[in-house]
Amino acid sequence: xxxxxxxxxxxxxxxxxxxxxxxxxxxxxxxxxxxxxxxxxxxxxxxxxxxxxxxxxxxxxxxxxxxxxxxxxxxxxxxxxxxxxxxxxxxxxxxxxxxxxxxxxxxxxxxxxxxxxxxxxxxxxxxxxxxxxxxxxxxxxxxxxxxxxxxxxxxxxxxxxxxxxxxxxxxxxxxxxxxxxxxxxxxxxxxxxxxxxxxxxxxxxxxxxxxxxxxxxxxxxxxxxxxxxxxxxxxxxxxxxxxxxxxxxxxxxxxxxxxxxxxxxxxxxxxxxxxxxxxxxxxxxxxxxxxxxxxxxxxxxxxxxxxxxxxxxxxxxxxxxxxxxxxxxxxxxxxxxxxxxxxxxxxxxxxxxxxxxxxxxxxxxxxxxxxxxx
Length: 374
Prior knowledge:
This protein has 3 domains: 6-149, 3-Layer(aba) Sandwich (Rossmann fold), CATH 3.40.50.12780; 155-231, 2-Layer Sandwich (GMP Synthetase, Chain A, domain 3), CATH 3.30.300; 265-343, ACP-like (Non-ribosomal Peptide Synthetase Peptidyl Carrier Protein, Chain A, Orthogonal Bundle), CATH 1.10.1200.10. Helices cover 28% and strands 23% of the residues. The protein is built from 10 helices and 14 strands. The protein has helices at 25-32, 113-119, 163-173, 205-218, 265-277, 291-294, 298-311, 318-323, 327-344, 362-371; strands at 15-18, 40-45, 55-59, 73-74, 78-83, 97-103, 120-123, 126-138, 143-149, 153-156, 159-162, 177-186, 192-200, 227-231. Helix 5 crosses helix 7 and helix 7 runs antiparallel to helix 10 (362-371).
């Protein structure tokens, strides 16, 4: 189709239906340029256990360019419920729950009776299938929003994390992002890290930083991936879905070939500290990259904070590291703080009052990161 003139390739096409994988408006717009203006696009949803189709959504073309498209409303003779762990209806617009499907098309069960009892449940006297998918009802539009799989809920360093929530945030960052998948990667030392594989239209380090910064602003610190891979395609399996098993392992700084080295003594000192805190080789620490792109974790940040206080400046707190989130930016800020402190410590002839301030408490800040999700 790339050799065709837009609108000439599929001029007779009037309806396109998509299903099986979460759909974004960018996918539709990329295809729509080859179709007739009157061609309608539908986003269908439904597992095989419900005869493939349970809901549909007619795409208008005016949807937000960020995130996935809604999966719409139930088709005739089908019921869709959004329920919590106790099979109670969740609060629309606010709560995310399990997508449960009833009505025509629900299968009779698996050959494995135990598995059948786990997924077939009774809701309001109707036999329903518990899909394992998560959704939310938009009460204003009446549309159901797909929010990922329950299978993709993980626990990392004591925090429960919804991987699809991270993926949705990445998709919202910019329409330059076409697709993404977030996984847990375990290294040789059995340490687990969040890794984001992001499919982009073109690779650009500045846009990479834009995506990371957006995640830092909209996600708790422990949910921001510590490693990123920006690619032009993602592996697809025979069913047309992203093949998570074929995703390549990602190493630190994979997206940037040239590492920016320190230009001051303070930057060199900070580079050494973060290399130790993040368990990385010194020559792999780029002083201009954010700590998330370097592979920083909440534990690593706390370790670095402790060393900075003991070796460089005692008054630094965790907010400073999160605000000035690269070695170069942090070095500039620390230098200005030290200059201000030196100036304030100079004796003044008319100075008779000495002010003292409480020092930051590492234990409280550590609790803040893990409990409050700083």
